[in-house]
Write a structure and sequence with these properties.
Largest sheet: 6 strands, mixed
Helix content: 10-25%
Strand order of the largest sheet: 1-12-9-11-10-13
Length: 330
């Protein structure tokens, strides 16, 4: 469990590593796996599928078919940023960090057979997507910094009159393990995967240290899933539509516009190296990040200019060591 951190090129005297034209010479080399902010916990092991470099993998044989059903003429949409209208908090999915003494509560689940029936550290301090009293997906992501255990729920709500927490589904993982959920089980995500490692975070963009795939959605998917996904919620039984768990990378040939800032360039380079993972059904090419007041309108506007047609699906099957593990081959 080694920390990934950034430092200046001059301080490290690693000119070769820092000479990345797409970052205008401002790249900051990173070492080993990033930590969840406010903890000493990794966002899953460094040899996890989430952190796998997919820039040299072969294009998936069904890439063109899948892309044809994914609004290829649209553009990327950052599903995070400043609050608007009645929403009291910034758009995006927040992360709550607690210590091991935090009380755990029983949660009633709509999809109980596929939810982890454990105590969840929910409370008045829990940050919920959209805010405590706003409708929507209402994801809650909680990290116990003492045990490095991740808890995630969806459609999270609390009824004060009966003192009861409920959610659509819930799942928990050890952040130090590559173990997957039971095959066929959902999570707080339709793909049965954890949400946390697929969120774009402001802190990693600011440090030029993004080392993972990014979660995104599309409206229509096949009734299947690819490793390491564990669940499908497809609308069509047709393999020419993309399955849950499919990984898409920004093509190496995509030229970054000259007026893009270093933050946008950092995100684009990560999309070329680690790609996007299809994790849920939703608006086309909406990709998720954390709820954070520091996201700039300039960055969001630049990311909205990236065309979906600049992506291609990659075949990650060669990375698999065991079907019930996210660990990838060297």
């Amino acid at each position: 469990m080694t920390r990934r951190f950034a430092t200046t090129c001059a301080a490290m005297s690693l000119a070769a590593l820092c000479n990345i034209p797409e970052l205008g010479g401002l790249a900051t080399p990173a070492i080993a796996g990033t930590l969840v902010p406010g903890t000493s916990c990794p966002t899953f092991p460094a040899n996890s599928w989430w952190h796998a470099d997919v820039s040299r993998l072969r294009v998936h044989p069904r890439s063109a078919q899948w892309m044809a059903h994914m609004s290829p003429n649209s553009k990327l949409h950052p599903d995070f940023g400043p609050s608007y209208g009645e929403q009291p908090v910034p758009y995006g999915i927040p992360i709550t960090v607690v210590d091991s003494s935090h009380p755990k509560v029983k949660v009633t689940f709509h999809y109980a057979p596929e939810s982890d029936k454990v105590g969840y550290p929910l409370g008045t301090d829990t940050r919920i997507e959209g805010g405590q009293y706003v409708s929507g997906d209402r994801h809650a992501i909680i990290v116990d910094k003492g045990t490095c255990r991740l808890y995630e729920t969806w459609a999270t709500s609390y009824r004060k009159d009966v003192d009861r927490w409920s959610a659509g589904s819930g799942a928990t993982w050890s952040l130090t393990s590559n173990a997957l959920r039971t095959a066929g089980w959902t999570s707080a995500d339709a793909a049965g995967l954890p949400i946390l490692p697929g969120l774009l975070r402001y802190d990693e963009v600011a440090r030029r240290a993004i080392d993972h795939a990014i979660r995104f959605t599309t409206p229509d998917t096949d009734t299947s899933y690819l490793w390491p996904a564990r669940h499908q919620a497809g609308s069509v039984d047709d393999p020419t539509y993309p399955p849950k768990g499919a990984r898409f990378r920004l093509k190496a040939s995509y030229q970054i516009p000259g007026n893009f800032g270093v933050e946008a360039r950092t995100v684009i380079i990560a999309m070329k190296k680690y790609g996007l993972v299809l994790a849920d059904n939703g608006s086309p090419w909406f990709f998720q990040g954390t709820s954070d007041r520091r996201w700039s309108e300039t960055l969001l506007d630049q990311l909205k200019q990236i065309p979906a047609s600049a992506f291609e699906a990659v075949d990650t099957s060669s990375l698999m060591i065991a079907p019930n593990s996210m660990q990838v081959s060297p």
